[in-house]
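Hey,

Quick one before I head out. I ran the complex with zinc ion overnight. Inputs first:
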Amino acid sequence: MKCYVCAREGKDSDAVAVCIVCGMGLCMRHAVRTETEVWQGGYPFPARKRQKKIPRILCPDCNAAYEEE
Ligand SMILES: [Zn+2]
Ligand SMILES: [Zn+2]
C-alpha cells in the first residue's frame, strides 16, 4: 500500500501504518500515533483494559478532527 497523503501531494511513499478511523495508508512521516484512555467510537476493546492507555494510529486529517472535540 502507498501513503495516501503523499499520493495526494504527487509523491510516492510506501505505507507503514493504517489510519484506524478512515483506513488510509500512511508513511512514517504522516502516521500520527497518539494514546487515549477511552475509545469513544465503540471499538471492542475489553473493558478490563480501561485503565491502560490505548495507542492508536491516525492520519493527519482524522487527528485534526479528534483534536477539535
Ligand atoms: Zn506520507
Ligand atoms: Zn484517517
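DSSP finds two helices and four strands in the chain.

Talk tomorrow,
K.
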